[in-house]
Amino acid sequence: MRAPFCLLLIVGVLLLLRWPASSLASVQVARTITVDQRGGGDYTTVQSAVDAVPDGNSQWVKIYVKQGSYREKVIIPSDKGFILLEGDGSSSTDINFDSHVDGADAPGIAPITGRLRGNLAEISQTYNSSTFTVHSDNFVARNITFKNTYTGNNPAVAFLMDGDKGAFYDCAFHGYQDTLSDLAGRHYFRRCLVEGAVDFIFGYGRSIYQDCTLVSNMAASSQQPGWVTAHGRAADKSAAFVFKGGSITGSGRQYLGRAWNEQATVVFYQVNMASIVVPQGWAKWTSTQHVSQVTFAEVGCSGPGSATGGRVPWEKHMDNAEVQRFVDIGFIDDGWLSNQP
């Protein structure tokens, strides 16, 4: 038995020697801050834990949020990067608030032409309604839920990120209108759940949603279908929402998306679609909008909502090379994912 063990040991050492140093360093967390609303941690609120992260932070800090429902608005400023937020499971730990827009204020009243941080409310009240806001680069969330508990029909964001290099694993995002503001930057979502009814994933981000569940909570009696996505392009001319695997389910009726501006790009790849998806599939933002540069596409999808016979005539049909450009992880990742814990 000793010889096979030695052989395995030698192979393991060789693999470690060949592994990039940056990848080894990526799994290390310099400090852990514990949040427990019952008083068993370092802080009782998530925002106070965020405030404890030093400005200009460059080492990964874990904020571990113990089981519970935390009612608060949280903002991570741009100078507090390298934060890992981890809960006890998306069904056990949530951060919630009910802030919302007073009056009609559709997302993105004015287009964003650069990376705006800290003054998003000057563009639209929608952004200021977010329960949890991340302005920093290098943010990771795992096993936690973000909620906007407002029950009306005005925009009310659960989560907003305009920082670069954000990754989300086994998280949930709950709202109704404008649930998840994937506003700007490169983001990766894996095995996440996003629930809403109107534009419930919106922004200018360049993101891949892998094996995610998109849940419509539109009333079954509603005559107006909702829109799963509202994407546009601003500073990042290669931005797109890419949904790879996973499913669309829930109640009511839904368009797959509407074009927030004339460069909107959304791709659904091998997604299972329930019958809530309307036959047209996609919509313009306004009836006069030009859609020649809009890229809305479906490839290899399944389920009763995936039938494309009634789709809008301007839906794009991609060749294999075009499809692979979007669905390959390299579309968003140049190595930053492996440098995160």
From TrEMBL:
One of its GO terms (molecular function) is pectinesterase activity. Residues 33-333 form the Pectinesterase catalytic domain. The active site is at D199. It is found in: Secreted, Cell wall. GO terms for biological process: cell wall modification; pectin catabolic process. Pathway: Glycan metabolism; pectin degradation; 2-dehydro-3-deoxy-D-gluconate from pectin: step 1/5. InterPro entries: Pectin_lyas_fold, Pectin_lyase_fold/virulence, Pectinesterase_Asp_AS, Pectinesterase_cat, Pectinesterase_Tyr_AS. It holds the Pfam family Pectinesterase. Residues 1-25 form the signal peptide. Keywords: Aspartyl esterase, Cell wall, Cell wall biogenesis/degradation, Glycoprotein, Hydrolase, Secreted, Signal. Transmembrane segments: none annotated. It catalyses: [(1->4)-alpha-D-galacturonosyl methyl ester](n) + n H2O = [(1->4)-alpha-D-galacturonosyl](n) + n methanol + n H(+). The keyword Cell wall biogenesis/degradation applies. Its EC number is 3.1.1.11. The keyword Membrane does not apply. Belongs to the pectinesterase family. Acts in the modification of cell walls via demethylesterification of cell wall pectin. This is Pectinesterase. It comes from Triticum aestivum.
